Structures are given as C-alpha cells and as structure tokens.
Known about the structure:
Structural class: alpha/beta
Mean pLDDT: 86
CATH class: Alpha Beta
Radius of gyration: 19 Å
Distance between the termini: 34 Å
Order of helices and strands: EHEHHHHEEHEEEEEEEHH
Helix content: 25-40%
Shape: globular
CATH superfamily: Metallo-dependent phosphatases
Largest sheet: 5 strands, mixed
Low-confidence stretches: 258-268
Strand order of the largest sheet: 3-4-5-9-6
Number of helices: 8
Amino acid sequence: MKIAVISCIHGNYEALTTVLKDIDSQNVDQIYCLGDLVGYGPYPNEVVTLVRSLDIPTVQGCWDEDIVDGLNACECSYPSLLAEKRGKVAHQWTDQEIHPETRTYLAQLPKVLKQDQLAFTHGSPQSQHEYLLPELDGFLALERVLSTGADILFCGHTHVPYVRTLDQHSLKFSVRTNSGKAIAPEQEFTAPVKRIVNAGSVGEPRHGRPNATYVIYDGDQVTLREVEYDYHKTCGAIIEKGLPPIFAWRLAQGMEFAERADDPSHLCERGV
Length: 272
C-alpha cells in the first residue's frame, strides 16, 4: 500500500492545501497525519476542519495535547528557553482562537496508530513531547521502535525530515541482585533491522528552506518530498492576526532562530 505521511501543520492552511494537491498527484492509497495541527500558525480551525473532512487518520501532537489539557510543558517540550517564551505566547493566542468542536476533536486523537508493521506517532510512542533526533543513541532509538511492535516508526515533532535505519543488534543481559550475584543465566536478545522515518513539517519547516515537507512510503521505498507553496500568505496572516512577527520571519527562512536543543540526548520522562 502506498501512503503519504504529513506532520506538524501548525495552523498553516496554505501549506496544507498545497501539499494535499501534491499528494493527489502521487496516487497514494492513504494519508496519515502525525499531529500538531495547531500552534504557531494563523488558521488552526481551518486546518482541523480540512483534516477532519478528509477523514485522515491522525495522532495527537504535543500542541494538540497542550491546547486540550492546558500548557503543561516538561523539560523537553521546547528546545530552548527562548522557544518556550514564544511558545507560551502562541499557546495563549491559539487557546483563545480555536472553536469548541476543534478542541473536542483534538482531545480524542490517539497517541499512536498502527497499520500492519507501520507505527505512527508525533514525538515518540512514549510522549508527544519527546524528540527522536537522528543522533539519538542507537539502542534508545531501537527501543522506541520495538515498543510499538512495528518495523517502521513514522514520527515528526523535530520539523526536520530524515530516514534512519537501525541495523540488526544483538544484546546480552543478565538479572543480578544488588550484590552483583546473577540470579538467572545470561540471555541474548537480537533485534531485526528497524527504521525511523521523520516526515518533517508541512506548516513550519526547519530544514533551512521554506518548502513544506512530507513522506511517501511505498513498500520498502521511502521518499522525502519538498513542496513549494506561497508562504508569503501565511506570513502576512501571522502578522495580521497578532502573532509574534518572528514566526513569520522563521517561516520564510525555513529555520529556527537561536533555538538549539540544550540537551539533544534528553528523553522525556512524562508517562514513565
């Protein structure tokens, strides 16, 4: 089955409609969405209405969760203090803007979807706020895929697309007492090849260009697609609606502004 995977739309209606047109030209069988329908962008209700009208299977993103439950940031919700400061402004604006039916829809979204040997999540299966960065320790990355029971884990959240293959690993372990005495024979666990595929971002790309990104998956073939769209329209609407002008600037640049992760190896402890 040929599928398209989109993520991190962030209220960017112009980007979403353009990407959907591109997906139509790819003759896919199904579209999946990895969440963050709202936040930062000027058209949260319109984005949710369109995704709902197309009956696209969607997981709950970190922004979708926080708009429903209230801002409840953990250490890794934002990559820096500067990002957190601006994020709170965007959260307040979005919280006041969205319609009750939009909030209800976001509240019922699942954290993980599974289709055969494919799993779909926003940040990671553990938390919508966790960043599965491409440099994450291999065994930790493998654990995140194995926890879903899938061969391929599709995620977003970082806004930068990548494909990572986790080669077959063999791990030996034993159970010991506090004194170090083994209480069971040593065992060996072998994990087959797995993959993590990050779809990047439709509505707020951070890969150095303003083009929207998404993924096409067809069998074992993964294609990262970039789509040009009229981002000037979204930039103008950001300013017109009173959101921080820096959001328009970074959208036009396709990058963050002084927002590098303080600790890229940090894993979210929410829900442990």
